[in-house]
């Protein structure tokens, strides 16, 4: 019994097609595994991104609170400096009287009125020195 050449060719083609089908089946399974792996990875990335977004919102809120605190501290510091600047000539005058300065020196160096200078001299230096 002899095999017809066409039957041999067709048989060879069928064998090749079956082998190609098996290759495609294995390739398809491999691709499905990769696809599932990538889907899992995408889900993890999405969750990580959501957590980062939530953290950045929290950090933004914290930054706003810190900026408000800094602003309040700056305002308080300005108020303290204004109060201190207003007291400075008196503080300087008191120190000068304690070192022996007279009323005329207080008027000249601290810009005080005669009444202010005499009061500071009386309170902090004993008897006011006329000058």
What is the mean predicted local confidence, pLDDT? Answer: 88
* DSSP summary: helix tally: 3
Shape: rod-shaped
Number of domains: 1
Proportion of helical residues: over 70%
Instruction: Calculate the terminal CA-CA distance, rounded to whole Å.
Output: 149 Å
The unreliable regions are none
SS elements, strand count: 0
Structural class: mainly alpha
What would you report as the Rg, rounded to the nearest angstrom? 47 Å
Order of helices and strands: HHH
| Percentage beta strand | under 5%
Characterize the largest beta sheet: strand count, sense, and whether it forms a barrel. none
Short note summarizing the structure:
Helix content is 87%, strand content 0%.
Structure write-up:
This protein has about 130 residues and is mainly α. The chain has one domain (about 5-125). It is about 85% helix and about 0% strand. The chain contains three helices and no strands. It has helices at about 5-100, 105-110, 115-125. The longest helix is centred in the middle third of the chain and has 94 residues, at about 5-100. The chain is rod-shaped. The mean pLDDT is about 90.
List strands and helices in order, with pairings.
Elements (H helix, E strand, L loop, with lengths): L4 H94 L4 H8 L3 H12 L6
Helix pairs in contact: 1-2, 1-3, 2-3
């Amino acid at each position: 019994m002899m095999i017809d050449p066409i039957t041999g060719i067709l048989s060879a083609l069928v064998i090749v097609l079956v082998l190609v089908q098996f290759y495609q089946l294995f390739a398809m399974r491999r691709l499905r595994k990769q696809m599932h792996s990538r889907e899992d990875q995408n889900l993890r990335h999405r969750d990580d991104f959501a957590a980062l977004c939530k953290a950045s919102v929290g950090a933004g809120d914290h930054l706003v609170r810190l900026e408000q605190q800094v602003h309040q501290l700056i305002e308080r510091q300005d108020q303290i400096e204004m109060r201190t600047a207003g007291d400075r000539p008196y503080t300087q005058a008191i120190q000068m009287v304690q070192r022996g300065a007279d009323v005329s020196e207080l008027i000249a160096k601290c810009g005080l009125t005669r009444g202010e200078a005499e009061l500071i001299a009386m309170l902090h230096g004993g008897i006011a020195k006329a000058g």
